[in-house]
Amino acid sequence: MAYLKSVELQNFRRHNNIQLEFSPYGNILLGPNGCGKTTIVEAVSFLALTKSFRTKKDAEVKKFDAGYFRVHGVFQNEESQEEITVFYKKGETRNVFSGKKKISKIIDYIGRYPVVITTLEDIAVVSGAPVNRRRFLDRMIGQSDARYLQSLKEYQKILHNRNKLLKDVRTDVEHIMVWTEQMSPLAEEIQTSRRQAIQQLETRVASMYKESGVGAELNIRYKSTASETSTLKSFKQSLRRDIKYGFTTIGPHADDVQFFTNGQPVRTYSSQGEQKLFLLLLKIAEGSLIKDWSGKQPIHIFDDMFASLDKKKANFVLDLLGKESQKIITTTDMSSISNNKKRTKTIRIEDYLKGEIVAVA
Questions:
Q1: Per-residue model confidence as pLDDT tens digits over 178-199
Q2: Which of 66, 89, 132, 172 could form a disulfide with 128 if both were Cys (CB 3.0 to 4.6 A apart)?
Q3: Starting from the edge strand earliest in sequence, which strands make up the sheet with 115-119, in order?
Q4: Distance between CA atoms of 144 and 332, rounded to whole angstroms?
Q5: Topology of domain 1-114+297-361, CATH
Q6: For the whole prediction, is pTM greater than 0.85?
Q7: Where are the domains of the chain?
Q8: Which region holds residue 295: left if phi is over 0, alpha if psi is between -120 and 50, else beta?
């Protein structure tokens, strides 16, 4: 089992320079709101995924009065350890290093140290716009399948070019069809991978949902905008509509995932508490699938997820993860997770801030 042994942040949001040592099992980052707990798990996201889960702009992560930020982490496994560094300098591109060697192909790195991140904003996966569910699927599959990420990247590039042509009234149909024929097999590959993932995800979430005592039948469906028999035919049939609107109206970029309990949509018929529990089970199932697909146990991060969850459900969720997975949990209050202190390290963030300037992130 690989785990994150330590992390160091320099000029990263509110932190000047902070170093933390983690347990291979449970870790609780304890402290009041505004002390930088989320910033620390955001740094873990950089180490595992090479990017933030909070923003697409590296300049927003850099401490406002600094010229750069640096995140350094040590990953430990049974036989060796690896040092990963993410470095960003103002006005330049972010770089990722293994030891002193620059990682040039990020797609091949993603999934080396898989991570499942769950935040309060992730409730949008359950109740928000389709883009949130597509992003959830892509991250889950992509951390164990580099080919999927590559196909997705190529599809998005062709989609961008096709949309540019659709906006240009001078473009002839034959030119559009050249891009259409290139993107169709990629679209089918992406959709096939997603459908297969959904089938396995449904089985695992349904089992855990039943075990939680909710007593509802659960279904997860992939809602495709294109025909399952011929994606190319679907693209051709939608061409007139695409030209009218000036963008590609069908394809993996427009698909959705639907969640149902007892035949009713979770997003509209379930309470906030039920939706939150559903999200947590969804994320645990994500980690379980990543482990099965890749053979690697992902790090589970829960950012302020247990504060409004009753103690029984919180402990049920943590027990589902098992004792072997590394967990990093941020919280302002220990009461809801008090039964899970065994093999758990509590890190009081304020104790690490004495040498830093305190400012809210």
A1: 999 999 999 999 999 999 999 9
A2: 132
A3: 115-119, 299-303, 327-331, 26-30, 344-348
A4: 33
A5: Rossmann fold (3.40.50)
A6: yes
A7: 1-114+297-361, 129-295
A8: left
